[in-house]
Specification:
By secondary structure, the chain is of the alpha+beta class. It contains eight helices and four strands; from the N terminus they run ααααααβααβββ. It has two domains: 76 residues, no CATH class; 75 residues, Winged helix-like DNA-binding domain superfamily/Winged helix DNA-binding domain (Arc Repressor Mutant, subunit A).
Length: 177
């Protein structure tokens, strides 16, 4: 299990951290509040060094609120990195960045490879998150340049073919335009 909580699982509570700080200071083993903040090394170190642990615990008494805020932010940051589903906007942002980096030809080629050499404007539009009109225009430009061929399935659907990605025998199922 990760040492970081998922977003929304509950933040560290400043009041509880103060109770742990006071309890540790009172019983002579300061550092419980650091363990609560997932700072295991320092928390253990404070518990077993007499005197110095009390001095640092007094310092923590003055600086506990910003430490708790920092621990909560760090936990959320790591949760986002570990789980894309934590913030749906993160997935949308990643898709936007990917789309901005990809040319229309890259989207078409990726779709063609995934579909074994056969693509339609609708498939390209869906894969590249672009309008069908734009996908069709890009496919027609590639066909005009001779990079791909326009063919018709037996069902009557117009498809654009990439022979280098097609399986053997798939060509026989298509009609020429």
């Amino acid at each position: 299990m990760s040492r970081y909580r998922r977003h929304g699982e509950g933040d560290l509570n400043i009041g509880f951290a103060y109770i742990l700080l006071a309890l540790g200071f009172y019983i002579g083993f300061p550092g419980f509040h650091r363990l609560y903040m997932k700072k295991y090394g320092v928390g253990t170190w404070l518990r077993f060094i007499p005197g110095l642990g009390h001095i640092l615990a007094f310092y923590d008494l003055l600086t506990l609120p910003p430490q708790i805020r920092e621990a909560n932010m760090e936990a959320k940051y790591h949760a986002v990195l570990a789980h894309d589903s934590v913030i749906p906007e993160l997935k949308a942002m990643k898709a936007r960045v990917k789309r901005e980096k990809e040319s229309p030809e890259q989207v078409i080629l990726r779709t063609a490879k995934k579909n074994k050499g056969l693509v339609t404007p609708g498939e390209v539009a869906l894969e590249g998150n672009i309008p069908i009109r734009e996908a069709k225009k890009n496919l027609e430009e590639l066909a005009a340049k001779g990079f791909i061929e326009m063919r018709v399935r037996q069902s009557g659907t117009v498809v654009y073919t990439f022979p280098e990605f097609m399986d053997e025998g798939e060509d026989a199922k298509l009609l020429d335009i």
